[in-house]
């Protein structure tokens, strides 16, 4: 009696097991997902919790759970499978699924790139992932759950992840993301001053250290714009022999020439916003300031030009790295187009306008000192006290003032000699 009841009670289970043995489900058959849904009651649910539940479900045979693991790895990736098995490890349900962690290189990202098939010439999109293998041990088919747990595990079969290739109808155009460092410097020297100039400033630059990285949808371009501004001025004498005047105490200033010196250094506001005449005298230090002003502006122009070029490049698209390379010279040209557009008369007006107050201050100081009689007069060939008075005061009758101020030097007022140094009374 007991035996007959046991047979009846076990009869549905045996039929179910027979049905399970007759059902062959593999990742290639396409029926595994239907069997997932039939067993779990979850339709279209591929969440991590759902996957863990399925892989740990003892109602599945060992081979079926191994096939499920293989399918998860192929469809959702090895990383997803690895996390699921790790959760099973914590739950103590992963004895039938083993992962070979020695092959894992989790710090390497997936990479998608386009390659050309050398045989057909077709452009194919290739997906490169982590070189990761997982092992599924083959166990003997158990007649019931007790035999399944006690079965011995055979040597593992290594199943490598196979990644599909996707043919492209044509090359895709990817966006460009360019980022360039601005490496600028200002240096004195390294330029040739033109014959008619007191000084000269010249910028030069190039895009350098370019690196192009092609990812899934972007070309990332990095590098630097190396930009050098060279400047220089003449020393001592100007282009036409002009004398350098350092300040109102300069030894080259005398009562003879102080008016000319002052006039040469007085800025002409009607000429480029303050360019001084400098017909016989010039100021080297103020010319240095003038060229340094140009150099500083050139650095600002270079930075603005780089921004314009970078924005232009980032608005472009490209299919290949070579396409990006052909765009780089165009980007560099846009930098110098902005610099050239900023040159010319406005640039000189700003530079002379910057120096005009300093020129005027020096010219006024020289004039005040000369009118105060603080400069000596050096007698020139053909001079007389009358002519000197006309030159200094505009009135020859004031020769007696000069004579009385220089009695120690002038014995006979009708006889003076070239090279004599005379004190000049104030106006």
Protein model, in words:
The chain has three domains: 16-167, no CATH class; 174-368, no CATH class; 376-423, Roll (Membrane-bound Lytic Murein Transglycosylase D, Chain A), CATH 3.10.350. It is 41% helix and 21% strand. The chain is built from twelve helices and 14 strands. Strands 8-9-7-12 form a four-stranded mixed beta sheet. A three-stranded antiparallel beta sheet has the order 1-4-5, with helices on one face. Helix 7 (258-265) links the parallel strand 10 and strand 11 (281-282). Helix 3 packs across helix 5, helix 4 (62-76) packs across helix 5 and helix 7 (258-265) packs antiparallel against helix 10.
Q: Would you report the number of β strands?
A: 14
Proportion in helices: 40-55%
Biggest beta sheet summary? 4 strands, mixed
Count, helices: 12
Give unreliable regions as ranges: 1-43, 98-120, 122-146, 148-154, 156-170
Task: Record the SSE blueprint.
Elements: H1 2-22, H2 32-40, H3 48-55, H4 62-76, H5 78-91, E1 98-99, E2 111-116, E3 123-128, E4 133-139, H6 145-150, E5 153-160, E6 166-167, E7 174-188, E8 199-214, E9 218-233, E10 243-244, H7 258-265, E11 281-282, H8 284-314, E12 317-318, H9 321-342, H10 345-371, E13 376-378, H11 385-393, H12 399-405, E14 421-423
Parallel strand pairs: 7-9, 10-11
Antiparallel strand pairs: 1-4, 2-3, 3-6, 4-5, 7-12, 8-9, 13-14
Helix pairs in contact: 3-5, 4-5, 7-10, 8-9, 8-10, 11-12
């Amino acid at each position: 009696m007991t035996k007959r009841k046991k047979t009846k009670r076990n009869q549905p289970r045996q039929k179910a097991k027979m049905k399970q043995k007759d059902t062959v489900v593999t990742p290639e058959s396409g029926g595994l997902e239907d069997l997932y849904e039939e067993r779990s009651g979850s339709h279209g649910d591929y969440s991590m919790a759902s996957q863990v539940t399925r892989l740990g479900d003892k109602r599945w045979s060992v081979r079926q759970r191994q096939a499920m693991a293989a399918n998860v790895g192929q469809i959702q990736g090895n990383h997803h499978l690895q996390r699921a098995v790790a959760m099973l490890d914590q739950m103590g349900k992963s004895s039938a699924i083993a992962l070979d962690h020695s092959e894992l290189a989790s710090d390497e990202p997936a990479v998608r790139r386009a390659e050309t098939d050398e045989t057909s010439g077709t452009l194919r999109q290739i997906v490169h992932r982590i070189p990761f293998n997982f092992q599924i041990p083959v166990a003997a088919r158990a007649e019931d759950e007790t035999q399944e747990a006690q079965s011995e595990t055979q040597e593992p079969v290594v199943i490598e992840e196979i990644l599909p290739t996707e043919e492209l109808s044509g090359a895709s155009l990817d966006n460009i993301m360019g980022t360039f460092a601005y490496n600028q410097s200002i240096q004195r020297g390294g330029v040739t001053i033109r014959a008619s100039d007191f000084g000269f400033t010249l910028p030069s630059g190039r895009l350098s250290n370019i690196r192009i990285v092609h990812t899934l949808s972007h070309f990332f371009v990095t590098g630097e714009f190396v930009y050098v501004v060279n400047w220089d001025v003449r020393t001592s004498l100007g282009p036409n022999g002009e004398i350098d005047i350092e300040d109102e105490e300069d030894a080259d200033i005398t009562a003879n020439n102080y008016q000319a010196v002052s006039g040469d250094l007085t800025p002409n506001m009607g000429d480029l916003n303050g360019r001084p005449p400098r017909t016989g005298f010039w100021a080297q230090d103020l010319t240095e300031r003038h060229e340094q002003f140009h150099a500083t502006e050139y650095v600002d122009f270079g930075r603005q030009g780089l921004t314009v070029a970078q924005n232009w490049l980032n608005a472009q698209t490209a299919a290949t790295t070579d396409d990006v390379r052909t765009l780089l010279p165009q980007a560099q040209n846009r930098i110098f187009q902005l610099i050239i557009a900023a040159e010319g008369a406005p640039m000189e007006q700003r530079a002379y306008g910057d120096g005009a107050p300093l020129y005027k201050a020096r010219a006024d100081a020289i004039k005040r000192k000369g009118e105060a009689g603080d400069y000596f007069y050096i007698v020139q060939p053909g001079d007389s006290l009358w002519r000197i008075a006309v030159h200094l005061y505009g009135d020859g009758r004031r020769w007696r003032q000069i004579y009385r101020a220089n009695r120690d030097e002038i014995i006979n007022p009708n006889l003076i000699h070239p090279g004599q140094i005379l004190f000049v009374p104030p106006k």
